[in-house]
What does this fold into?
Amino acid sequence: MGFESILDIKESNKGVTRPAFFLDLNIDQIIERATKGDRGVIQYFEYFPLDEECVEYRRMVYRDICECGLYDALAAFNMAYNEYRDIENKKNSTRVDLQKPVWNFCGMVIYTGCLVNLLEALKAADLKSEGFTELAKYLEEYTGTQDFISMKEKSVKLKTALDALSVTADYENGRIIVSVENGIEEEKEKSAEEDDEQEERNFRFYEEFLSGICATNEKEFVNPCASTDELTGFEQEIVKIVAKRNPDIFKEADKLYDEKNKYENTVFGRLADELRFYLSFYEFEEKMKKAGFAFTSPKKSEGERIAATGLYDLALACVNSEKGKPVISNDMSYEKGELFFVLTGPNQGGKTTFARSLGQLVYFSKVGLDVPAKEASVMYFPDILTHFSVEESVETGRGKLMEELVRLSPMMKENPSDAFVVINELFTTAANYDAIIMGQNVLKHFLEQGCHGIYVTHLRELCDIDDRIVGLSAQLDENGKQNFKILKKAVDYEGCAKNQVEKYGLGYENLKKRLESIRGTVL
It folds into this structure.
């Protein structure tokens, strides 16, 4: 029985802090939507599997969920397990002693039932992942023990007997008469209409009955054995009467409680928690697919090649999907020997968006999930490092350049071997010559560490400092407008300049009219 986790085969989930790159890449916005803000689920998105083997372990698990139709069975398991936990909480918090053994076997029925149902679903699926295959073996061994079988049979028998009891309370002339009947012995066939009519009559009767004895307690009469851990004195008396009239059920319940009031296997509690990582993203992915956005399971890259077709910024897609708008996708590839992209081009041409999409590609591949693209192959990276332009800090009194250097320093001192690096618009406040020198030093450092990445800048000189650097450029359409396409080709600087001139009304005719207007005003 070696199964421990559906997420990690080499380490447990320990306390972690949110990675620094979450904000730069807008991954926090994506995860917030995928998890609906559930902090208990978000924590699983904030740490990485230990190594490449663990990443593949997760990826195959997620493939089984998508391709074997396991979502419904896993969601049903989680729902049932949450119900079991709720009953356990009630059992542990109730002050009515008679309720503890009752809720003990009620929770046991749900616990054993959801494990058996999950096993049946896994056995019926064509599993490929080590995670689910080992889980199925573990479940089969666990549910096949005599202890589990006995626990299941006893709890189901008690629950069936309890459900068959019918309690009637009559209030007349200041007296309450309680009768308890066994529904199994006196069961009669009734039509659905008769059941509904009887239920309505019972409800009217209870309303009238309770108004006479519970006028100051605005509380609907509930099943005192299975509904709530806050009972009125009247409901507690009902419990005592039921137990007195049916001593065998409650004696057996007490016996089972004494033998098995702690029976949960913690492996399944962890399973229920960890499954939410996969299920939340699956639900999110299906929603985005319906809105027209593509996802794919990334292939394991051979060598150092990284490639994707139809790659897009998932955070931007989340926003646009709510507005019914599409996003522009791009194709990209790092060929053999290529380590860094240097991306230049016009302002608002999609450079930062493209850089974020690359970082998101690596992140979602690294945590073992599908990536936002039509097709993709991604090599393994031990870490992701990002540095985006920041504003001056009023609190520290440092200028923008100093703020950038302070944040850049630990990234370079840690010597991050083989990491994926995303740098956006560094040294924009420095003189052009200084920015080029500093940019060259930064790129050379990460190249020496064997890192891959992208550097977004207006300094086209950075494209030519090393053969392992490839220049990319944001493109303009035939009308000189940004089309948000990123290609491996030289920047059309004349077109970029013309675009900016037209955008800000700096063309010859516009300037001429403005000068004439000013001259006329002066005259």
